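HUMAN: Can I see a protein plus its fold?

ASSISTANT:
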Amino acid sequence: MSGFFSKHLVASLALLTMDCAQAVTEPTPDMPAAVSSLPGWSTAYSFEQLGRPADNLLLGIRNSDQIEFSLRRDRIASDARLQLEYTPSPSLLPQTSHLRVYLNDVLMSVVPIEKDQLGRKVTQSVALDPRLVSDFNRVRLEFVGHYTDTCEDPANSTLWLNVGRSSQIQVQEQPLTLKNDLAYFPMPFFDIRGQGKPVVNLVFADAPTLGEQRAAGILASYFGSQAGWRGAQFPVLFDQLPPADGQNRAPSAIVFATNDHRPSFLADMDTYPAVDAPVVQMIDNPQDPYSKVLLVLGRNDDDLAVAARALALGGDLFRGSRVTVNQVRQLKPRVPYDAPNWVRTDRAVRFAELIKYPEQLQANGLQPRPITVDVNLPPDLFVWRSQGIALQTRFRYTPPSVNDESRLAVSLNNQFITSLALQGKAGSRLEELRLAVLSSESADLNEKLLVPGLKIGDRNTLRFDFNFASTFGSAQRDRCQTSLPVNNQAVIDEESTIDLTGYHHYIAMPDLRVFARSGFPYSRMADLSETLVMVPARSLPVQLSTLFETIAAISARTGLPAFGLRLSDNWDDAKADVDLLVFGAMAPGVGNGADANLVLDQTRDWLLKPASEHNGKSPRAGQLSDERDQGTNRVEVSAQAPIAAIVGLQSPHHEQRSIVALLASDEADYQLLRDTLGDSGKMDAVAGSVTLIRSSGVGSSWVGQQYFVGRLPWWLLLWYQLSEHPVLLAGLAFTSVLLTAFLLWRALRWAARRRLAGQE
């Protein structure tokens, strides 16, 4: 099979280094025609996909907007266009009103506004210079509008141009051939500059072992933590590389192999000799000179896990086409709730730790854009009867010339909290502010802002809107004068802090919503060191893809690869003090018309059946401690349509541990489950204790009895439990008053008798 990786493709290639990170091979005239013909990709991203969920209105006083897009470093743009969709105000003067288009601060085109376009939706194609397209790009639109020849007011309501969110940036991309150098990893498998969802092909020999699956899961979690909001897909193949498409383009792939368990195309021990340590090697894809194959090799399964962890941890140290991993050590164990993407709960956190890019906390202009900060909290944060989370905010701004109506508005998750007057003398100083909870009044500038606890969830967006009032004198009827608007500056200081110390962790379970949105309870330990994944004894490719995509989704929520991942197909291991993530088949008899009660019952029975009935692996675990309210109706049918389910329940072995089972039977069922896991809209519908997934949609139900995970002080737990029984609480209060009155009466009688006895 050595010819499978033939070397004739690199016989006449010359290397060119670009941007200190790209090694490009240019074809020479004597190259084969198949090699010199460059493959290409046509990509188009709408403004909505690039972070503009709504149309943008350009005004006379806020006349510019900027759209960012990126390009993978292993590709080059051969053509680029801006497909604009906009509607100009019907009151504009044609010809003198126009739209300027910039790419990376270079003027690309001036789009005039014609008379027949006024008040109508217009589609305009603007050519962009592909030579200016780099890995990170900005397209800036500047609206120049006029409604009269003289005495214009820039704030006049007739000056507007609506830019549609369906406008597109279209790029024709061509590949750059990378050297076989691991210094570029994770390219070409993933580039953070890419806009789309990465697809990483994973290749095994037939019937991969648990160790191989674990190594692939660790590496998949790394890609998931890097991809973040994009998500990731992991097609799995046995004993073959992914095939080329009709244009002879073959995707890159990662191969996991040990000395004794290899895919057939690595069977030639002369070309690919046995290794004596964990090894990572980058080679050319024999089907495509612009594609790569990453070999993760080891003597055994443990070596594969070491190599995968080294790729996730020490990729910056890798150099050359082949690296031998000497050692990977964990210097400090992880602790609960230390996920990089979550706000820490053991100390105050500075805004500098929460920002994603430089200048995120700055804004400028006559009407500056909103300043936003993402605050992601652990989903089990206990904020019952909380007076709020302390937020110490410092800000600077251009001082108004007079004390006018300029204000700072603060909102959380698009819900208004309060506003502050921007004082003329105070604007140039570093300040602190305090806003009362749910108050809209200006407050003392020397205290703290309290964010309402009821609005704190696992994902939050804190927004600051600086609104500067301005007065123009250029539109007076009898007297015309020009004035130059002030370019206002506003900054939220990076030393502002949010403080979650003192809050407890306590949550009612099962709750599949927190699993879907935060990966909880597994993400409690960001490295999944307290998670055990139960898999079938012999997994199919589609099952492995579902496993890897689920693990990657959890790591995307935490921002940390699953270095502590453990897998097992032996149900004796399920008795350990861990949270269980179970992948298995739907229970027999569950069809397209199954209800939540039936699914929960049969899933519970499936998890607790004897070993002889559970692939020879599952011992009888005993009965669960919680008895469920069965309800009065049940439906059992047989159907052929695809169906999958996600079920949450309490562990039968440890009351503080949970089980989430992802259930599907055949390939169509698993594909339905994968489509749901990769769709943020469908995942928002996952909640309760049972979620049924059908082709028609996702339905969730609350069935079964709740249990609680976490710890509270005894006095707080007592009050929390009594708060759900107001009649009992009133009875206890009444009894306490009677008992106190009785004891007081007895004490007074005793004191009176003593006093009388002393007088005798």
About this structure: The chain has ten helices and 40 strands.
